Amino acid sequence: DTEVTQTPKHLVMGMTNKKSLKCEQHMGHRAMYWYKQKAKKPPELMFVYSYEKLSINESVPSRFSPECPNSSLLNLHLHALQPEDSALYLCASSQDPVNYEQYFGPGTRLTVT
Amino acid sequence: QQQVKQSPQSLIVQKGGISIINCAYENTAFDYFPWYQQFPGKGPALLIAIRPDVSEKKEGRFTISFNKSAKQFSLHIMDSQPGDSATYFCAAGYRQTGANNLFFGTGTRLTVIP
After folding, report:
1. Contact B35, B15 (CB under 8 A)
2. Do B89 and B104 form a contact (C-beta atoms < 8 A)?
3. Residue A112 clears pLDDT 70, i.e. is over it
4. Could you give the CA distance from residue A7 to residue A23 in angstroms, rounded to a whole number?
5. What is chain B's alpha carbon radius of gyration, rounded to the nearest angstrom?
6. For A42, which of B89, B95, B109 is closest by C-beta distance?
7. Are B34 and B48 in contact (CB under 8 A)?
8. For range B61-78, the mean pLDDT
9. A55, closest residue in chain B (CA to CA)
10. A23, A40, B4, B47: most buried, per Cβ within 10 A?
11. What is the spatial distance between Cα B20 and Cα B18, in angstroms, rounded to a whole number?
């Protein structure tokens, strides 16, 4: 099973809302990633978790808060977002932090109104 | 600063033709070069990857050519099919404290005409 699942597929939220994105993998991978992708642009790395610990934060605003409850789950908590945060949010995983092969989920299409 | 430069931005190829997408980089610390395929509304999928000690890698209709001295690599899609129509991203990987990381190129939208 090489699948990374993400829920929800689509999310519309107001600027005052609090919502969460969820990512799950059952491949036994120990590194998990959050990316942001704007239309017609490449994915941009936001966060990396290695062995359930936050190892990389690419200077992401605090209105994005990642969480890794266990080795299979990754959440992204959203609060007080701006319309420019509207994008496709992608989760990925790799076998471990030094393995380059990243498997991406289908993404959550987020619209901030 | 774009770490990986990709061209062309868009490409139209006839069915059965060869699609060629090029990427260039500057940082010699990069040591892994993958290509990802992305369909609309989907996440990128790893297509093929190469290490800098190899000049060519072929998997089915997909071939990566790598020129270490020129710091360039390219994706060749032989016998292109309409189902290959997608956006292709090259990337370059480097080791950093915490985790290995990937820099993505800007993407090429490939359209294969029946």
Report:
1. no
2. yes
3. yes
4. 7
5. 14
6. B89
7. yes
8. 97
9. B98
10. A23
11. 6
Residue A83: helix, strand or coil by DSSP? helix
- Residue-level pLDDT at A2: 63
Write the CB contacts of B90 (distance below 8 Å, at least 6 apart in sequence): B4, B6, B21, B23, B33, B34, B35, B36, B73, B75, B104, B105
State the best of A30, A40, A98, A100 to mutate against chain B, taking most chain B CBs within 10 Å: A100
B51 touches chain A (CB under 8 A): no
- In DSSP terms, A14 is beta-bridged to none
Half-sphere exposure of A11 (CA within 13 A, CB side): 28
Q: How does pLDDT run across A23-62, given as a tens digit for each residue?
A: 999 999 999 999 999 998 999 999 999 999 998 888 899 9
Taking residue A102's Cβ as centre, other Cβ atoms within 10 Å add up to: 28
In terms of CA atoms, which chain B residue is nearest residue A102? Answer: B46
Q: How far is A79 from chain B (nearest CA, A)?
A: 24
Amino acid type, B81 = Q
Scan for tokens 């092969």, then name that residue.
Answer: A101
Distance between CA B92 and CA B27 in Å, rounded? 9
Q: What span, in angstroms and rounded, lies between the C-alpha atoms of A6 and A104?
A: 10
CA dist A28 and B23 (Å) reads: 32
**Would the pLDDT of B2 be above 70?**
no
